[in-house]
Amino acid sequence: xxxxxxxxxxxxxxxxxxxxxxxxxxxxxxxxxxxxxxxxxxxxxxxxxxxxxxxxxxxxxxxxxxxxxxxxxxxxxxxxxxxxxxxxxxxxxxxxxxxxxxxxxxxxxxxxxxxxxxxxxxxxxxxx
Length: 128
What we know:
Elements: E1 3-7, E2 10-13, E3 18-25, E4 33-39, E5 46-51, E6 58-60, E7 68-73, E8 78-83, E9 92-99, E10 117-118, E11 122-127
Parallel strand pairs: 2-11
Antiparallel strand pairs: 1-3, 3-8, 4-5, 4-9, 5-6, 7-8, 9-10, 9-11
């Protein structure tokens, strides 16, 4: 059983920055591929970014590429999402997710169905 807790959300003006954190417990983070997803009000959950177990490989959604950076610190069981140059369309609840499968495929890792555990989400609101 893996528990995931997100933090770091809040209200920020357009052009500002936030850093989200996701702390894992119940299993060593280095055994988990991880991802960030988001869900805006009235919309489906969408992929944001994913990172391999070692942190050596990452994939981003086109809409955040160049503005967001996913990273992880396996020593403290924490994953991050640094969000810069935020836009009003980034407003959503952000979720971290963990994939327990032994093989990480960068294409499959963009799909929510690939993940076994989810956090409760943290709200990010970007004002114009």
